Amino acid sequence: MLPxxxxxxxxxxxxxxREIIDRLQPAGYIxxxxxxxxxxxxRHLTDExxxxxxxxxxxxxxxxxxxxxxxxxSLGLQLPGAADLxxxxxxxxxVETAIVSALTLxxxxxxxxxxxxxxxxxxxxxxxxxxxRCWGTDPQQVLAYxxxxxxxxxxxxxxxxxKHFPGMGKAETDPHSDLPVIHSTLEQFIAEDIIPxxxxxxxxxxxxxxxxxxxxxxxxxxxxLSPALIGHILRERLDYRGLVYTxxxxxxxxxxxxxxxxxxxxxxxxxxxxxxxxxxxxxxIDGIAEGIARICPQTxxxxxxxxxxxxxxxxxxxxxxxxxxxxxxxxADALYRKVPSAGSAPSSPVQQY
Length: 353
Hints:
Layout: E1 2-7, H1 15-24, E2 26-31, H2 39-51, E3 59-62, H3 82-88, H4 91-107, E4 112-113, H5 139-155, E5 159-165, H6 186-191, H7 195-199, E6 206-209, H8 227-237, E7 243-248, H9 252-255, H10 260-270, E8 274-277, H11 285-293, H12 297-311, H13 322-338
Helix pairs in contact: 4-5, 4-13, 10-11
């Protein structure tokens, strides 16, 4: 098993992708809007990915937060986002949104949703990719609402992922383009930003690391590549035992200075389990695999053991039901019409993938 999460080129596997998958056995995949054209096509693709994995069920993931981060618009499936749900403040609506999201994703063959966002929002919108995606500005509100969303996604069969650890709400730049720098101390993060992650620790299937530089914690490495943050704080101090993902290592925050064949091994050596490589993967995957092969065998043994232990918790998606799908679309439409939208947010590549 190759401990990476890969993006795919289009709506069906290419011959090159099939050869890579069969030979390297990636631990998982993430699908974006570019990979989703119809219900039948999506389910066929996720089933094929699952069928090509030998001896394990791979992570088959999606960013389905709702609002402006929704990957299923081409299927007629829209859902309200975190900020709009939080503004409405109706618990039953948050529960229903989480359930409909989980059931529709399961019907499509996904077993993992890279949600909920646990970053703290700000009162003044910043161009950091987060506006409209956060459950609130107060850690207790984020914990309450995101916790409800997370528990209901888990209850209905999805593995979840809290993001972006240790919290990038104070970032003033978008990591899709450049590396944000946040000068808060560890004590300041623990007092605010990390609270939702700490409180939901045992309930999160996974945690996604932020591409941010925290000079007071590790002046040399972004959080997603930092042994201090991943190993000492997340693993040891918080005793987190679920899967640890990076955000996409093809984002400008990392890729402008480190190509994936370097950043992926560094993330794994720092304590990450599953680095994400989401774009132009087939051009670089062999170099990534060669870099991983040079990692200390004990480090890789521990990583693969954590992955295997956690992937045993992945549910096998149910047989697709056209009747249930239509019923779920009706429920999603009712939710989307019920929850008022606050309007547009600063543009970011996150909503275009």
